[in-house]
Design brief:
Strand order of the largest sheet: 5-14-17-16-15-18
Family: Belongs to the membrane fusion protein (MFP) (TC 8.A.1) family.
Helix content: 25-40%
Number of strands: 24
GO molecular function, one term: transmembrane transporter activity
Pfam family, one: HH_CzcB
InterPro entries: Beta-barrel_RND_2, BSH_CzcB-like, CzcB_C, HH_CzcB-like, MFP_Cation_Efflux, RND_pump_MFP
CATH topology of one domain: conserved putative lor/sdh protein from methanococcus maripaludis s2 fold
Function: CzcA and CzcB together would act in zinc efflux nearly as effectively as the complete czc efflux system (CzcABC). The CzcB protein is thought to funnel zinc cations to the CzcA transport protein.
CATH class of one domain: Mainly Beta
Oligomer: single chain
Distance between the termini: 71 Å
Number of helices: 8
CATH architecture of one domain: Beta Barrel
Shape: elongated
Structural class: alpha+beta
Radius of gyration: 49 Å
Largest sheet: 6 strands, antiparallel, barrel
């Protein structure tokens, strides 16, 4: 009976293994091994023959390639990278060169018209605006007629001048005649002296009337042309622009009364925008660094424009509200790019010195508490200790450890510092 039971067990195991292999091809190897290489009731099943593969062995396995890691070499401070790794890390190298070390003071500013290039076209006598020849935004030349004024005062002053001139001319003729007679001893000296005094008196009156017309705005050419001017135009006065520029304000309308007795005297405002001012607000602590003649770089974030000017004025008094000093820089504006009223960011160049070796601030990394730069060598990049000096907003002076012309890392040098840190941690 025992033999019969053993035979039934062996047959059952064989049939079960065949069924599992057929119905469940991906059966775990442990189960198949249990059927194939373990004993059942004292009977040992044969293991797979050499060369035979199980279903698990037949499954393809994915091959994972390890990314190449930086090679730090045997030399301390050396990092070896392939060209592909350098490009991927964004590392950029360039020769070390000399340059100028500049420090800048960053302050806010406002574009304003230059006070030296601003004029107000005004009348100096009472009258009525007869004609306005310019509108807002129009360009004018120096001496160009912008308006016409009808004024009784102008007519009276012109008449006074012409009368004084006529009297002076007549007396001049009498004086020259009496002088000729006196020279020939035909007339008395008293008559000659009397004619001379009368002429000088009338000449003074003529000059006074001329100066009055000049004060009222008439040019020398206009005064000389008065004897030939039609009498109907005696009340008419031409108002001219004192400078070339652009009309930025008109204060009166046609037919308005202007002049004295609390009336408006200004007709137009003219601004020459070929040069503008930049009003800068400098704190009292930074004021000792600012000097007249220093270069100022002006930028605007709205348009991205950039310009350079020079400081022309430093206010001696602080503003009571902001407690800042007013510093004025003059900026060329030939294309009228800079509009008055615009807010700008300004950099005042407070120092400018030549140095032998100048590197970007990002090129210097601190290793073991000392400044280093990464120098390009045949094997890769080598960290080299350097001695640094002065610095500005962007660059650092290297006084020892680096020669001009040596190629150093100027961008993303922190990546190399990180690699050295990893190597030190692994050791």
């Amino acid at each position: 009976m025992v033999m019969v039971r053993i035979i039934f067990l062996v047959a059952g195991a064989l049939v079960g293994g065949f069924v599992i292999a057929t119905v469940w091809p991906g059966a775990p190897d442990t189960l198949r091994a249990a059927l194939a290489g373990r004993s059942v009731a004292g009977f040992t099943f044969p293991a797979p023959r050499a060369g035979e593969t199980t279903n698990a062995d037949a499954q393809p396995k994915k091959k994972v390639e390890a990314e190449p890691q930086p090679d730090h070499g045997d030399k301390p401070g050396l990092v070896k990278l392939t060209d592909a790794q350098i490009d991927k890390a964004g590392i950029r190298a360039a020769p070390a060169v000399g340059g100028r070390l500049t420090r800048h003071l960053h302050v806010p500013g406002t574009i304003v018209p230059s006070a030296n290039n601003t004029a107000r076209i005004a009348v100096k006598t009472q009258g009525i605006v007869a004609e306005l020849r310019k509108s807002l935004g129009d360009k004018v030349a120096k001496g160009e007629i912008v308006a016409l004024l009808d004024s009784r005062d102008i007519a009276d002053t012109k008449g006074e001048y012409l009368a004084a001139r006529l009297s002076a001319d007549l007396q001049k003729t009498l004086y020259e005649r009496d002088k000729a007679l006196w020279d020939k001893r035909i007339s008395s000296e008293q008559q000659y002296l009397r004619s001379q005094a009368s002429y000088q008196d009338l000449k003074v009156k003529e000059d006074a009337a001329r100066r009055k017309l000049t004060f009222l705005g008439l040019s020398q050419a206009e005064i000389d042309a008065l004897p030939n001017q039609p009498e109907a135009q005696f009340e008419r006065q031409e108002i001219r622009s004192p400078i070339a520029g652009k009309i930025v304000e008109r204060r009166v309308d046609l037919g308005a009364a202007v002049g004295r007795d609390n009336l408006e005297t200004e007709l137009y405002s003219v601004v020459d925008l070929s040069k503008v001012w930049v009003d800068l607000a400098v704190s009292p602590g930074d004021l000792p660094l600012v000097r007249e003649g220093q270069t100022v770089t002006v930028r605007t974030e709205v348009t991205g424009e950039e310009g350079r000017g020079r400081i022309v004025f430093i206010g001696p008094v602080l503003d009571q509200n902001t407690r800042a000093a007013r510093v004025v820089a003059e900026l060329a504006n030939p294309d009228e790019t800079w509009r008055p009223g615009s807010f700008v960011a300004a950099e005042i160049e407070v120092s400018d010195k030549a140095v032998r070796v100048l590197v970007p601030a990002d090129a210097v990394q601190t290793l073991e508490g000392k400044p280093n730069v990464f120098v390009r060598v045949a094997d890769g990049f080598e960290a080299r200790p350097v001695t640094v000096g002065r610095s500005d907003d962007r660059n650092v002076e290297v006084t020892a450890g680096l020669e001009p012309g040596e190629v150093i890392v100027v961008a993303n040098s922190f990546t190399l510092k990180s690699e050295l840190g990893k190597a030190a941690a692994e050791d």
